[in-house]
Design a protein that fits this description.
Pfam family, one: ADH_zinc_N
Oligomer: single chain
Keywords: Metal-binding, Oxidoreductase, Zinc
Strand content: 25-35%
CATH topology of the largest domain: Quinone Oxidoreductase, Chain A, domain 1
CATH superfamily of the largest domain: Medium-chain alcohol dehydrogenases, catalytic domain
Cofactor: Zn(2+)
CATH architecture of the largest domain: Alpha-Beta Complex
Organism: Methylovulum psychrotolerans
Bound molecules: NADP nicotinamide-adenine-dinucleotide phosphate, zinc ion
Number of strands: 17
GO molecular function: alcohol dehydrogenase (NADP+) activity; zinc ion binding
Protein backbone atom coordinates (compact mmCIF):
# COMPACT_ATOMS: atom_id res chain seq x y z
CA UNK A 1 0.00 0.00 0.00
CA UNK A 2 1.15 3.58 -0.70
CA UNK A 3 0.24 6.35 1.79
CA UNK A 4 -1.04 9.26 -0.25
CA UNK A 5 -1.39 13.00 0.36
CA UNK A 6 -4.25 14.64 -1.54
CA UNK A 7 -6.92 17.33 -1.60
CA UNK A 8 -10.56 16.22 -1.58
CA UNK A 9 -14.07 17.66 -1.72
CA UNK A 10 -16.34 16.21 0.96
CA UNK A 11 -19.64 17.66 -0.30
CA UNK A 12 -20.88 19.67 -3.32
CA UNK A 13 -20.76 22.89 -1.31
CA UNK A 14 -17.55 22.57 0.74
CA UNK A 15 -14.07 23.65 -0.40
CA UNK A 16 -11.38 21.11 -1.19
CA UNK A 17 -9.26 20.32 1.88
CA UNK A 18 -6.24 18.12 2.71
CA UNK A 19 -7.03 14.39 2.68
CA UNK A 20 -4.98 11.21 3.16
CA UNK A 21 -5.62 7.68 1.89
CA UNK A 22 -3.75 4.58 0.65
CA UNK A 23 -3.13 3.63 -2.99
CA UNK A 24 -3.31 -0.13 -3.68
CA UNK A 25 -0.24 -2.35 -3.66
CA UNK A 26 1.14 -2.97 -7.16
CA UNK A 27 -0.39 -5.79 -9.16
CA UNK A 28 1.83 -7.39 -11.85
CA UNK A 29 0.55 -5.07 -14.62
CA UNK A 30 0.58 -1.87 -12.55
CA UNK A 31 2.78 1.22 -12.75
CA UNK A 32 3.39 3.37 -9.66
CA UNK A 33 3.71 7.06 -10.53
CA UNK A 34 4.93 9.94 -8.38
CA UNK A 35 2.71 12.78 -9.59
CA UNK A 36 4.51 16.02 -10.46
CA UNK A 37 1.73 18.06 -12.07
CA UNK A 38 -2.04 17.87 -12.55
CA UNK A 39 -4.20 20.17 -14.69
CA UNK A 40 -7.47 21.66 -13.46
CA UNK A 41 -10.27 20.75 -15.89
CA UNK A 42 -13.72 22.36 -15.79
CA UNK A 43 -15.03 18.78 -15.39
CA UNK A 44 -13.30 18.73 -11.97
CA UNK A 45 -15.58 21.60 -10.91
CA UNK A 46 -18.72 20.07 -12.44
CA UNK A 47 -18.08 16.85 -10.51
CA UNK A 48 -16.81 18.29 -7.20
CA UNK A 49 -20.00 20.39 -7.12
CA UNK A 50 -22.15 17.43 -8.23
CA UNK A 51 -23.44 19.31 -11.28
CA UNK A 52 -23.70 16.07 -13.30
CA UNK A 53 -25.54 14.23 -10.50
CA UNK A 54 -23.01 11.39 -10.10
CA UNK A 55 -20.70 12.61 -7.34
CA UNK A 56 -19.22 10.22 -4.76
CA UNK A 57 -17.56 11.85 -1.73
CA UNK A 58 -14.88 12.21 -0.61
CA UNK A 59 -13.75 13.12 -4.15
CA UNK A 60 -10.12 13.63 -5.18
CA UNK A 61 -10.42 15.25 -8.65
CA UNK A 62 -7.75 15.44 -11.33
CA UNK A 63 -7.35 13.67 -14.68
CA UNK A 64 -4.54 15.60 -16.35
CA UNK A 65 -1.67 13.83 -14.62
CA UNK A 66 2.06 13.93 -15.40
CA UNK A 67 4.63 12.23 -13.22
CA UNK A 68 7.63 9.92 -13.01
CA UNK A 69 7.48 6.15 -12.80
CA UNK A 70 8.75 5.10 -9.38
CA UNK A 71 8.01 1.34 -9.46
CA UNK A 72 6.62 -1.22 -11.90
CA UNK A 73 4.84 -4.54 -11.42
CA UNK A 74 6.52 -7.79 -12.50
CA UNK A 75 4.56 -8.02 -15.79
CA UNK A 76 5.01 -4.41 -16.94
CA UNK A 77 6.83 -4.22 -20.29
CA UNK A 78 6.37 -0.67 -21.63
CA UNK A 79 7.63 1.44 -18.70
CA UNK A 80 10.66 1.63 -16.43
CA UNK A 81 11.55 3.58 -13.32
CA UNK A 82 12.28 7.22 -14.14
CA UNK A 83 10.11 7.48 -17.27
CA UNK A 84 8.00 10.64 -17.62
CA UNK A 85 4.42 9.46 -18.06
CA UNK A 86 0.86 10.71 -18.23
CA UNK A 87 -2.55 9.51 -17.09
CA UNK A 88 -5.74 11.01 -18.48
CA UNK A 89 -9.44 10.45 -17.80
CA UNK A 90 -9.37 6.63 -18.05
CA UNK A 91 -7.67 4.08 -15.79
CA UNK A 92 -9.67 1.02 -16.87
CA UNK A 93 -12.19 -0.50 -19.29
CA UNK A 94 -13.45 -4.02 -20.02
CA UNK A 95 -10.73 -4.54 -22.71
CA UNK A 96 -12.88 -7.12 -24.59
CA UNK A 97 -15.92 -5.30 -26.06
CA UNK A 98 -15.92 -4.03 -29.64
CA UNK A 99 -15.21 -0.46 -28.50
CA UNK A 100 -12.15 -1.60 -26.53
CA UNK A 101 -11.01 -3.81 -29.42
CA UNK A 102 -11.26 -0.74 -31.69
CA UNK A 103 -9.04 1.29 -29.29
CA UNK A 104 -12.04 3.42 -28.30
CA UNK A 105 -12.01 2.59 -24.58
CA UNK A 106 -13.80 5.86 -23.82
CA UNK A 107 -16.96 4.38 -25.41
CA UNK A 108 -16.77 1.07 -23.46
CA UNK A 109 -19.91 0.33 -21.42
CA UNK A 110 -17.71 -0.27 -18.37
CA UNK A 111 -15.07 2.46 -18.32
CA UNK A 112 -13.19 3.20 -15.12
CA UNK A 113 -12.63 6.94 -14.90
CA UNK A 114 -9.58 8.27 -13.08
CA UNK A 115 -11.71 9.70 -10.27
CA UNK A 116 -15.32 9.61 -9.05
CA UNK A 117 -15.77 6.15 -10.58
CA UNK A 118 -16.44 2.78 -8.93
CA UNK A 119 -13.00 1.11 -8.71
CA UNK A 120 -12.86 -2.61 -9.65
CA UNK A 121 -10.08 -2.84 -7.02
CA UNK A 122 -12.50 -1.60 -4.35
CA UNK A 123 -14.00 1.72 -3.35
CA UNK A 124 -13.96 4.77 -5.59
CA UNK A 125 -11.16 5.98 -7.83
CA UNK A 126 -9.18 8.99 -6.61
CA UNK A 127 -7.52 11.33 -9.12
CA UNK A 128 -4.47 13.47 -9.56
CA UNK A 129 -4.86 16.14 -6.90
CA UNK A 130 -2.55 13.77 -4.99
CA UNK A 131 1.12 12.86 -4.80
CA UNK A 132 1.06 9.37 -6.35
CA UNK A 133 -1.16 6.98 -8.30
CA UNK A 134 -1.18 3.29 -9.28
CA UNK A 135 -2.44 2.56 -12.82
CA UNK A 136 -2.61 -0.48 -15.12
CA UNK A 137 0.11 0.08 -17.73
CA UNK A 138 -2.42 -0.08 -20.61
CA UNK A 139 -3.76 3.30 -19.43
CA UNK A 140 -0.36 4.97 -18.94
CA UNK A 141 1.04 7.24 -21.67
CA UNK A 142 4.61 8.13 -22.63
CA UNK A 143 5.47 11.86 -22.47
CA UNK A 144 8.41 13.01 -24.60
CA UNK A 145 11.27 14.52 -22.61
CA UNK A 146 11.24 17.49 -25.02
CA UNK A 147 7.87 18.65 -23.64
CA UNK A 148 7.68 20.77 -20.48
CA UNK A 149 5.99 18.33 -18.05
CA UNK A 150 3.80 20.97 -16.37
CA UNK A 151 2.57 22.38 -19.69
CA UNK A 152 2.05 18.83 -21.02
CA UNK A 153 -0.35 17.86 -18.21
CA UNK A 154 -3.46 19.45 -19.81
CA UNK A 155 -2.84 17.43 -22.98
CA UNK A 156 -4.16 14.39 -21.08
CA UNK A 157 -7.74 15.76 -21.15
CA UNK A 158 -8.02 19.17 -22.84
CA UNK A 159 -5.58 17.97 -25.51
CA UNK A 160 -7.13 14.65 -26.43
CA UNK A 161 -10.73 15.93 -26.12
CA UNK A 162 -10.06 18.48 -28.86
CA UNK A 163 -7.58 16.46 -30.97
CA UNK A 164 -9.90 13.44 -31.25
CA UNK A 165 -12.89 15.18 -32.92
CA UNK A 166 -10.61 17.25 -35.17
CA UNK A 167 -9.10 13.98 -36.42
CA UNK A 168 -12.41 12.08 -36.57
CA UNK A 169 -13.96 14.79 -38.77
CA UNK A 170 -10.71 14.87 -40.77
CA UNK A 171 -9.97 18.55 -40.34
CA UNK A 172 -7.09 19.68 -42.50
CA UNK A 173 -5.80 22.15 -45.07
CA UNK A 174 -8.58 23.89 -46.97
CA UNK A 175 -11.11 23.56 -44.14
CA UNK A 176 -12.66 26.48 -42.31
CA UNK A 177 -12.91 25.46 -38.66
CA UNK A 178 -14.57 27.25 -35.76
CA UNK A 179 -13.68 26.88 -32.09
CA UNK A 180 -16.21 28.16 -29.55
CA UNK A 181 -14.80 29.34 -26.19
CA UNK A 182 -11.17 30.18 -25.39
CA UNK A 183 -10.67 28.17 -22.21
CA UNK A 184 -8.66 25.04 -21.44
CA UNK A 185 -10.17 22.96 -24.24
CA UNK A 186 -10.67 25.85 -26.65
CA UNK A 187 -7.09 27.08 -26.63
CA UNK A 188 -5.85 23.54 -27.37
CA UNK A 189 -8.40 23.23 -30.20
CA UNK A 190 -7.05 26.44 -31.76
CA UNK A 191 -3.47 25.11 -31.61
CA UNK A 192 -4.39 21.70 -33.06
CA UNK A 193 -6.68 23.01 -35.83
CA UNK A 194 -3.93 25.42 -36.89
CA UNK A 195 -1.26 22.69 -36.79
CA UNK A 196 -3.53 20.48 -38.95
CA UNK A 197 -3.59 23.25 -41.57
CA UNK A 198 -7.13 24.61 -41.19
CA UNK A 199 -8.29 28.23 -41.37
CA UNK A 200 -9.26 28.79 -37.72
CA UNK A 201 -11.95 31.15 -36.41
CA UNK A 202 -12.25 31.53 -32.63
CA UNK A 203 -15.59 32.53 -31.11
CA UNK A 204 -15.36 34.20 -27.72
CA UNK A 205 -17.63 36.02 -25.28
CA UNK A 206 -14.58 37.84 -23.86
CA UNK A 207 -13.23 40.62 -26.13
CA UNK A 208 -10.06 40.90 -24.03
CA UNK A 209 -9.02 37.44 -25.32
CA UNK A 210 -8.85 38.53 -29.01
CA UNK A 211 -5.08 39.21 -29.05
CA UNK A 212 -4.29 35.95 -27.25
CA UNK A 213 -6.49 33.96 -29.65
CA UNK A 214 -4.49 35.32 -32.59
CA UNK A 215 -1.20 34.61 -30.84
CA UNK A 216 -2.37 31.03 -30.21
CA UNK A 217 -3.08 30.54 -33.92
CA UNK A 218 -6.57 31.84 -34.74
CA UNK A 219 -6.78 33.43 -38.20
CA UNK A 220 -9.92 35.35 -37.21
CA UNK A 221 -11.70 36.07 -33.92
CA UNK A 222 -15.45 36.69 -33.60
CA UNK A 223 -17.06 38.19 -30.50
CA UNK A 224 -20.10 35.92 -30.36
CA UNK A 225 -22.28 38.51 -28.62
CA UNK A 226 -22.14 40.66 -31.79
CA UNK A 227 -24.87 39.43 -34.26
CA UNK A 228 -23.37 41.26 -37.25
CA UNK A 229 -19.95 39.64 -36.71
CA UNK A 230 -21.68 36.24 -36.46
CA UNK A 231 -23.86 36.76 -39.57
CA UNK A 232 -20.79 37.60 -41.66
CA UNK A 233 -19.84 33.88 -41.38
CA UNK A 234 -23.26 32.35 -42.28
CA UNK A 235 -23.05 29.07 -44.18
CA UNK A 236 -19.25 29.04 -44.36
CA UNK A 237 -17.80 26.48 -41.88
CA UNK A 238 -16.85 22.85 -42.51
CA UNK A 239 -16.62 22.07 -38.80
CA UNK A 240 -17.17 23.87 -35.49
CA UNK A 241 -15.95 22.52 -32.14
CA UNK A 242 -17.98 23.91 -29.23
CA UNK A 243 -16.21 23.77 -25.84
CA UNK A 244 -18.59 25.98 -23.84
CA UNK A 245 -19.47 24.73 -20.35
CA UNK A 246 -22.80 26.64 -20.08
CA UNK A 247 -26.19 26.30 -21.84
CA UNK A 248 -26.55 28.58 -24.89
CA UNK A 249 -28.26 28.96 -28.27
CA UNK A 250 -26.73 26.34 -30.59
CA UNK A 251 -28.56 27.69 -33.68
CA UNK A 252 -26.18 30.65 -33.62
CA UNK A 253 -23.47 28.14 -34.64
CA UNK A 254 -25.38 25.59 -36.78
CA UNK A 255 -26.40 28.47 -39.08
CA UNK A 256 -22.72 29.17 -39.71
CA UNK A 257 -22.12 25.65 -41.14
CA UNK A 258 -21.87 24.83 -44.85
CA UNK A 259 -23.87 21.99 -46.40
CA UNK A 260 -22.96 18.75 -44.55
CA UNK A 261 -21.02 20.70 -41.91
CA UNK A 262 -20.84 19.48 -38.31
CA UNK A 263 -21.16 21.28 -34.99
CA UNK A 264 -19.44 19.00 -32.48
CA UNK A 265 -20.21 19.55 -28.79
CA UNK A 266 -17.59 18.69 -26.19
CA UNK A 267 -18.70 21.06 -23.41
CA UNK A 268 -21.03 19.39 -20.88
CA UNK A 269 -23.25 22.03 -19.22
CA UNK A 270 -25.12 21.17 -16.04
CA UNK A 271 -28.40 22.32 -17.65
CA UNK A 272 -29.54 21.44 -21.22
CA UNK A 273 -29.00 23.78 -24.15
CA UNK A 274 -32.23 25.25 -25.59
CA UNK A 275 -33.59 22.78 -28.17
CA UNK A 276 -31.89 23.38 -31.54
CA UNK A 277 -33.91 24.45 -34.60
CA UNK A 278 -34.72 21.56 -36.97
CA UNK A 279 -34.87 23.86 -39.98
CA UNK A 280 -31.33 25.07 -39.28
CA UNK A 281 -30.30 21.40 -39.61
CA UNK A 282 -32.40 20.13 -42.56
CA UNK A 283 -31.61 22.98 -44.92
CA UNK A 284 -27.98 22.15 -45.84
CA UNK A 285 -28.10 18.70 -44.11
CA UNK A 286 -26.12 19.94 -41.11
CA UNK A 287 -25.26 17.78 -38.08
CA UNK A 288 -24.90 18.34 -34.37
CA UNK A 289 -22.59 15.71 -32.85
CA UNK A 290 -20.70 15.02 -29.64
CA UNK A 291 -17.34 13.53 -28.72
CA UNK A 292 -15.87 12.13 -25.50
CA UNK A 293 -12.13 12.44 -24.71
CA UNK A 294 -10.23 9.85 -26.83
CA UNK A 295 -8.94 6.28 -26.64
CA UNK A 296 -5.54 5.36 -25.25
CA UNK A 297 -3.95 4.70 -28.67
CA UNK A 298 -5.15 8.06 -29.99
CA UNK A 299 -4.02 9.81 -26.80
CA UNK A 300 -0.49 8.50 -27.41
CA UNK A 301 -0.76 9.61 -31.06
CA UNK A 302 -1.80 13.10 -29.86
CA UNK A 303 1.13 13.26 -27.39
CA UNK A 304 3.53 12.24 -30.17
CA UNK A 305 1.96 14.88 -32.47
CA UNK A 306 2.57 17.44 -29.70
CA UNK A 307 6.21 16.39 -29.40
CA UNK A 308 6.66 16.63 -33.19
CA UNK A 309 4.99 20.08 -33.39
CA UNK A 310 6.21 21.37 -30.00
CA UNK A 311 2.64 21.89 -28.76
CA UNK A 312 1.78 22.21 -25.07
CA UNK A 313 -0.80 24.09 -23.07
CA UNK A 314 -0.51 27.73 -21.93
CA UNK A 315 -0.65 27.36 -18.17
CA UNK A 316 -0.76 29.16 -14.84
CA UNK A 317 1.12 27.04 -12.29
CA UNK A 318 -0.49 27.03 -8.82
CA UNK A 319 0.04 25.45 -5.42
CA UNK A 320 -2.61 22.97 -4.25
CA UNK A 321 -3.48 25.45 -1.48
CA UNK A 322 -4.80 27.77 -4.24
CA UNK A 323 -7.21 25.23 -5.73
CA UNK A 324 -10.43 26.73 -4.38
CA UNK A 325 -9.69 30.21 -5.72
CA UNK A 326 -8.59 28.61 -9.01
CA UNK A 327 -12.03 26.94 -9.32
CA UNK A 328 -13.67 30.36 -8.86
CA UNK A 329 -11.45 31.92 -11.53
CA UNK A 330 -12.25 29.12 -14.03
CA UNK A 331 -15.96 29.82 -13.46
CA UNK A 332 -15.32 33.47 -14.39
CA UNK A 333 -13.46 32.40 -17.60
CA UNK A 334 -10.42 34.03 -15.97
CA UNK A 335 -7.57 31.58 -16.66
CA UNK A 336 -4.83 31.77 -19.26
CA UNK A 337 -5.55 29.09 -20.27
CA UNK A 338 -5.23 26.16 -17.88
CA UNK A 339 -4.37 25.99 -14.20
CA UNK A 340 -1.83 23.29 -13.40
CA UNK A 341 -1.13 22.22 -9.83
CA UNK A 342 2.49 21.72 -8.77
CA UNK A 343 2.02 18.71 -6.47
CA UNK A 344 5.29 19.41 -4.66
CA UNK A 345 3.15 21.97 -2.80
CA UNK A 346 1.30 19.10 -1.06
CA UNK A 347 4.36 18.64 1.15
CA UNK A 348 4.85 22.35 1.97
P1 LIG B 1 -13.11 26.39 -19.39
O1 LIG B 1 -11.62 26.49 -19.30
O2 LIG B 1 -13.97 27.00 -18.33
O3 LIG B 1 -13.51 26.99 -20.83
C1 LIG B 1 -14.83 27.16 -21.24
C2 LIG B 1 -14.92 28.46 -22.07
O4 LIG B 1 -16.27 28.60 -22.49
C3 LIG B 1 -14.64 29.72 -21.29
O5 LIG B 1 -13.28 30.05 -21.22
C4 LIG B 1 -15.40 30.76 -22.07
O6 LIG B 1 -14.63 31.18 -23.19
C5 LIG B 1 -16.58 29.99 -22.60
N1 LIG B 1 -17.78 30.26 -21.80
C6 LIG B 1 -17.95 30.10 -20.48
N2 LIG B 1 -19.19 30.43 -20.09
C7 LIG B 1 -19.83 30.78 -21.21
C8 LIG B 1 -21.16 31.20 -21.48
N3 LIG B 1 -22.07 31.35 -20.50
N4 LIG B 1 -21.50 31.45 -22.76
C9 LIG B 1 -20.59 31.31 -23.74
N5 LIG B 1 -19.31 30.93 -23.54
C10 LIG B 1 -18.94 30.66 -22.29
O7 LIG B 1 -13.56 24.88 -19.44
P2 LIG B 1 -12.81 23.60 -20.09
O8 LIG B 1 -11.99 22.94 -19.05
O9 LIG B 1 -12.22 23.99 -21.39
O10 LIG B 1 -14.07 22.64 -20.30
C11 LIG B 1 -15.14 23.03 -21.15
C12 LIG B 1 -16.28 22.04 -21.07
O11 LIG B 1 -15.88 20.81 -21.65
C13 LIG B 1 -16.73 21.68 -19.64
O12 LIG B 1 -18.14 21.54 -19.64
C14 LIG B 1 -16.07 20.34 -19.39
O13 LIG B 1 -16.74 19.56 -18.43
C15 LIG B 1 -16.19 19.74 -20.77
N6 LIG B 1 -15.27 18.63 -21.04
C16 LIG B 1 -15.74 17.66 -21.88
C17 LIG B 1 -14.91 16.63 -22.25
C18 LIG B 1 -15.39 15.59 -23.23
O14 LIG B 1 -14.81 14.51 -23.28
N7 LIG B 1 -16.41 15.88 -24.02
C19 LIG B 1 -13.61 16.56 -21.73
C20 LIG B 1 -13.16 17.59 -20.91
C21 LIG B 1 -14.00 18.64 -20.59
P3 LIG B 1 -14.69 32.69 -23.74
O15 LIG B 1 -14.27 33.56 -22.57
O16 LIG B 1 -13.71 32.66 -24.85
O17 LIG B 1 -16.10 32.93 -24.20
ZN1 LIG C 1 -11.15 16.99 -18.24
ZN1 LIG D 1 -14.94 -2.38 -23.29
Amino acid sequence: MHPTLAYAAHSPTSPLVPFQFQRRALKPGDVHINILFCGVCHSDIHQARDEWGNAAFPMVPGHEIVGKVSAVGSAVTRFKIGDTVGVGCLVGSCRICSECQDDLEQYCDNPVFTYNSPDPNGGTTYGGYSDNIVVDEHFVLHIADSLDPAAAAPLLCAGITTYSPLRHWQVGAGDKVGVVGLGGLGHMAVKFAKALGAHVVLFTTTPSKIADAKRLGADEVVVSKNPDEMAAHNGSFDFILNTVAAPHDLDAYTLLLKRDGTLCLVGVPDQPHPSPSVSALIFRRRSIAGSLIGGIKETQEMLDFCAAHNITSDIELIAIQDINSAFERVLKSDVKYRFVIDLASLRS
